[in-house]
Every structure is written in C-alpha cells, then in structure tokens.
Amino acid sequence: MFSTAVALTTYIRGSDEETRIMRCRIIRYLVLSQIYVLRNVSIQVRERFPTFEATEDANLINSEEKQLLEETKDNYSQFWIPIIWAEEILYEARQQGKISIYMGWLKVAEDMLHPLGEEFDNLECNYIIDKNLITGLSLVDKGGKQIPSPQKDEFWDKQNTLKRNI
Questions:
Q1: Cα–Cα distance measured from residue 49 to residue 58, given in angstroms and rounded to the nearest whole number
Q2: Which pLDDT tens digit goes with each residue over 32-68?
Q3: Calpha distance 138→136 (Å, rounded)
Q4: pTM of the shown model
Q5: How many helices (H) and strands (E) does the chain have?
Q6: Which of 106, 118, 125, 151 lies 20 to 30 angstroms, CA to CA, from 165?
Q7: Has residue 162 got a pLDDT over 50?
Q8: How far is the C-alpha of 140 from the C-alpha of 162, rounded, in Å?
Q9: Which domain holds residue 100?
Q10: Which Pfam family, any one of them, does this sequence belong to (predicted)?
C-alpha cells in the first residue's frame, strides 16, 4: 500500500479539496478491499470486521457505499467492488487532467495485484490494515506538497561519488 500511496501522491497532483478527496477515497477503498480479502484468511480480521456495519462503524464505508455493497450479489466475495470504485476514481481523475504521468499507473496496478507483497506468512493482519490506512492517507494528503529546489550538490560532475574506507 505504501508504494501505491506514493504513486497517488506523485501522479494525482493538487491540494484542492476535490483532489485530496479522490486520493483519500482510493486509499480507503484499497484498504477496504484488503479487509474483505483478509477476513477470509484471518480470524482476527473476521472478528474485528464481521459485517458491513463493522466497517461502517470504523468509518471505512459510508451508508451509500454500504448499500451498494449489500446490493451487489456475489456468492463468493465482494472484495473486488472497492477496487472497481478506485479504478473509476482514477478514470475520473484522468478525464479531468489530474493525472500527470499515465505510465506511472502500471506500477499502481502491479501493487494492487499484490497488496501484501510476495510473502504472506504469519502476518498480523489487523496491524497491516491499520498501518496501510494511516500511512496511505497521510501520504496522499501530506506527501508531495513541496520538494527542495534543484541545485548542484557535492556529487555533481564527480566520477567517484562516495569515499571508501578501505
């Protein structure tokens, strides 16, 4: 989720309220999707979020989103629904000219396919949910606002950039 949040901050530029809401909704939807997947493999997550009401009580979905989830009939899972919502927001951002470099979304798509990384053994799933939500929202809301001005540094035009202690 960290690299997805960094990509959102990098490629969906703007500090206006609408743009910030877009970035935060995408993170929230991706974390929500994680919750619905992790509920199937973690008893702790299932106990923490046993129903849509529990995710609503945690402010991860609102009443409209809850209703849309409940109305979607799928015999196996509804984890994919928030991902579709996130993709729709990305499409809207692109239509509005808010996405600065479209090729960066290849990395975002890859991260969405493997949100927990390659290794998924003995993870504390509730910690991952909390960490991803807090870090993701913080990054997309506060990251990328101002970067240092470009200037030549100590390594400019040098072949041996680092001194070695041999």
A1: 9
A2: 888 888 888 889 989 999 988 998 898 888 888 888 8
A3: 5
A4: 0.69
A5: 8, 0
A6: 151
A7: no
A8: 33
A9: 2-142
A10: Bestrophin
